[in-house]
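thought: user wants a sequence for this fold. calling inverse folding tool.
action: design(structure=
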């Protein structure tokens, strides 16, 4: 088995478990909308129920449409990730890691939708009065995975075989010329 599959086998279940475990702790230990200052002025734990997508998009979509829509989006994401994974070179490391991160985040948030009907977000970062949208472990995995995917696409792609070949190949030596002989001389 090529090493690219080890990212799926090891990283994906670990991150899904970490995501679901952290959300279960939040569900069981924080009151809805309660806040715990971890690093005052920078980092809080805030229990938020997000029925929409990233950054609260589609929050107003009727519930009857949300789960089927997010299920279709998740299935499409898994198909695309599977296709990209199969296309990845057997010895690649960055691309499989990126795809495993994105896959684990998608699975973690999809489990929430089936389990609770919403995604549990709880990490709130801010600087003074400027707040970043609340997120979770799955969102972090997706974000880091996308960043690695972009980096891999832009900077670490293998060069095509023609580009890797030297610009000039040395010319073969010319064959030695036969000595000229006089046609009138006896041979």
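)
observation: tool returned 187 residues.
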């Amino acid at each position: 088995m090529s090493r690219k599959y080890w990212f799926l086998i090891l990283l994906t279940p670990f991150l899904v478990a970490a995501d679901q475990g952290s959300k279960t702790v939040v569900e069981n230990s924080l009151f809805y909308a309660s806040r715990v200052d971890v690093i005052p002025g920078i980092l809080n734990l805030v229990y938020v129920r997000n029925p929409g997508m990233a950054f609260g998009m589609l929050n107003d979509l009727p519930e009857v449409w949300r789960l089927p829509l997010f299920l279709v989006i998740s299935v499409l994401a898994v198909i695309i990730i599977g296709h990209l994974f199969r296309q990845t070179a057997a010895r690649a490391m960055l691309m499989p890691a990126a795809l495993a991160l994105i896959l684990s985040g998608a699975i973690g948030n999809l489990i929430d939708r089936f389990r609770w009907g919403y995604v549990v977000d709880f990490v709130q970062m801010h600087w003074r009065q400027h707040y970043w949208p609340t997120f979770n472990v799955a969102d972090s995995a997706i974000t880091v995975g996308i960043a690695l995917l972009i980096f891999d696409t832009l900077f670490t792609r293998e060069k095509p075989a023609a580009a890797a070949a030297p610009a000039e190949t040395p010319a073969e030596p010319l064959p030695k010329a036969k000595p000229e002989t006089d046609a009138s001389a006896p041979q």
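thought: summarizing for user.
answer: Here is the designed sequence. The chain has five helices and four strands.
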